[in-house]
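Saturday, quiet lab. Running sequence design on the structure tokens for the scaffold JK sent over.
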């Protein structure tokens, strides 16, 4: 396998997803205040936040959970020279699951679909870590 910098494009995409969600949290909070559904002080304690902005804030938190393992494995694959085609395809597959998961979470918020997407992303990440283990073995 080659040490390809192409592994960083899905990493950049995941970072941009997180930045987009930051923007959504802010815009939903501003909208809640403008609509009179919340006061700025309500955002001190997320448990009293209106549902639309609370959902976006929770999704933002999600972007710092499983994706942390994604970032670590992508960097590890690059550093060890294991960032070949399989690693890049898996990285894009992971990002795709995160984008669709975020979309579902921020729109319909259907738990069954979100859970399935999370499990698929988790499985892809597990395969990434197995690929790294096989590569360095």
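Result came back. Writing it out in full:
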């Amino acid at each position: 396998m080659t040490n390809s910098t192409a592994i960083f494009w899905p990493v950049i995409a995941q970072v941009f997803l997180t930045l987009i969600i930051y923007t959504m949290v802010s815009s939903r909070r501003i909208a809640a205040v403008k609509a009179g559904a919340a006061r700025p002080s309500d955002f001190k304690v997320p448990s009293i936040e209106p549902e639309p902005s609370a959902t976006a804030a929770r999704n933002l938190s999600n972007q710092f959970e499983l994706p942390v393992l994604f970032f670590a494995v992508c960097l590890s694959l690059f550093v060890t020279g294991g960032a070949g085609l399989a690693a890049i395809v898996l990285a894009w597959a992971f990002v795709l699951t995160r984008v669709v998961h975020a979309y579902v979470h921020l729109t319909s918020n259907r738990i069954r679909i979100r859970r399935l997407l999370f499990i698929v992303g988790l499985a892809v990440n597990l395969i990434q870590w197995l690929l790294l283990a096989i590569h360095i073995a």
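Notes for JK: The mean pLDDT is 94. The helical segments are 8-34, 51-62, 66-79, 85-106, 111-136. Ask whether to fix the surface positions before the next round.
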